[in-house]
Design brief:
Helices cover about 30% and strands about 20% of the residues. It is an alpha/beta fold. It has an 8-stranded mixed β-sheet, sandwiched between helices. It has a 7-stranded parallel β-sheet with strand order 4-3-2-1-5-7-9. Strands 18-17-22 form a 3-stranded mixed β-sheet, with helices on one face.
Length: about 425
């Protein structure tokens, strides 16, 4: 049997060579102790041309900073606030991929993975460890990496689902830094109205997917009187936890993973992290599983609830960018859109405020130049704002325009109607919906 022993972070990162591609466990569970050790090697002039890959990360991100230009180059699968400015300045980059396929980049060899650097829980009695709050594509990275380094951290919860033998790792490092937490975001009145409009589309017994933030929290609040909801999602946070504790979410109607909450990564309070620790009602799974549209579709009444930065009058949904400025990423939006509409009685719902915080309309005649289309118009179904909900599926372009204008901000409707008239011609006003 392979002998297991612990080394310092500085000793472990000596395995990294110039030119390597490095996978980081992400979100709340970034192995900052290893990153800091790499920075020390970089400052000493020992390494250069390292490529970093990960989901969005929380906390400091020196691997994206201008001071390490030519030494570190960040190429994340999803862009968080900590790297956004550097990505848009060109010091770091975005690698477009559906999150469900991020693992396949590694497994297929399309993207090299020389070193996997992850945080794991303390081992169980069988020598298995959990990736805790950040399974995502880390399982695939560990499988294919030439070298795998684990930070064994007692603050990483032991979550059931996809586990890894501690013996798989080439280097083990001890650290007890707490995981990054995110406070519960209180929704605004506008977000509560959107949540109410979304909740009206969700039947009892549904299985839901939604993310983190004030709008999902508003929706969770409006679902508090529902019954027998299930959860199959990329991630969940405190909003879902509140529904679980109230008994609203019990997974009783799920056809697969019945009675289980299924996710791939988490970000929230310590309560969320404590909740998944050795909890048989929670499965933290490889993103290959959580985001597979066929798997998603197996649960009836699947409700995929996502957001957007803009939606044009034909139903094109932009969610990763604002014009040419990368804001986040493709994420798993289309994975869940496809899975939900394949589900018996399922719905794909895109929910957002009709205007930005700066007063710019988000239902637009044309997407900003350079904006990325995350969900094509052919895949657009329910669109929800604080002014109502409309279903675009089975609707023509002109019908879509009329429907979307009806839920735009009232002060924007005249301009949008004029833009639709100019786009579709003089016959645009000659029919009703």
């Amino acid at each position: 049997m392979k002998e297991l022993h612990y080394v310092s972070a500085d000793e472990a990162v000596k395995a990294v060579k110039s030119g390597d591609h490095i996978h980081l466990s992400s979100v709340a569970s970034v192995p900052h102790v290893l990153i800091n050790a790499l920075c020390r090697r970089a400052d000493a002039g020992e390494i250069r041309d390292l490529h970093f890959h990960h989901f969005h990360t929380e906390g400091p991100a020196p691997y994206s900073e201008p001071r390490y230009e030519g030494i570190f180059f960040d190429q994340g699968f999803f862009i968080g606030p900590n790297v956004r400015a550097n990505v848009n300045a060109g010091y770091a980059d975005y690698l477009p991929v559906h999150l469900g396929e991020s693992q396949f980049l590694y497994r297929s060899g399309a993207l090299p993975c020389d070193v996997a650097m992850v945080q794991v829980s303390l081992p169980d009695e069988n020598g298995m460890v959990s990736l805790g709050t950040s399974v995502d594509s880390s399982i695939a990275a560990i499988e294919v990496a030439k070298k795998a380094i684990a930070v064994v951290n007692p603050n990483v919860p032991f979550a059931y689902g996809d586990l890894v033998p501690l013996s798989r790792f080439d280097f083990l490092v001890k650290d007890d830094t707490p995981l990054v937490t995110k406070d519960f975001a209180e929704p605004t009145e506008t977000e509560k109205m959107i949540g109410k409009n979304c909740a009206a589309l969700v039947p009892d017994g549904a299985c839901i997917q939604m993310g983190i933030g004030a709008l999902p929290n508003a929706l969770a609040g409006e679902l508090s009187n529902h019954k027998n909801l299930g959860v199959h999602t990329e991630m969940f946070a405190d909003g879902i936890l509140r529904l679980i504790k109230k008994g609203v979410v019990n997974g009783a109607n799920k056809k697969i993973d019945t009675g289980k909450v299924v996710a791939s990564f988490l970000l929230g309070s310590d309560d969320v992290y404590s909740f998944i620790d050795r909890n048989p009602a929670v499965l933290m799974k490889d993103i290959k599983y959580t985001n597979d549209p066929w798997v998603i579709s197996q649960n009836p009444l699947m409700m995929a609830i996502n957001s957007a930065t803009e939606v044009d009058l034909t139903g094109q949904i932009s969610a990763d960018s604002i014009g040419t400025r990368i804001f986040s990423g493709t994420g798993g939006q289309l994975d869940f859109v496809k899975g939900a509409v394949m589900s018996k009685g399922g719905k794909s719902i895109t929910a957002f405020a009709s205007r930005t915080n700066k007063g710019k309309n988000k239902i637009v005649g044309f997407l900003n130049p350079g904006a990325g289309v995350v969900t094509p118009r052919a895949d657009a179904h329910w669109i929800v704002t604080e002014y109502g909900a409309v279903d675009l599926y089975g609707r023509s372009l002109q019908e879509r325009a009329k429907l979307l204008i009806s839920i735009a901000h009232p002060d924007d409707r005249e301009k949008l109607d004029r833009e639709a008239f100019e786009r579709f011609g003089p016959h645009y006003h000659n029919f009703s919906i």
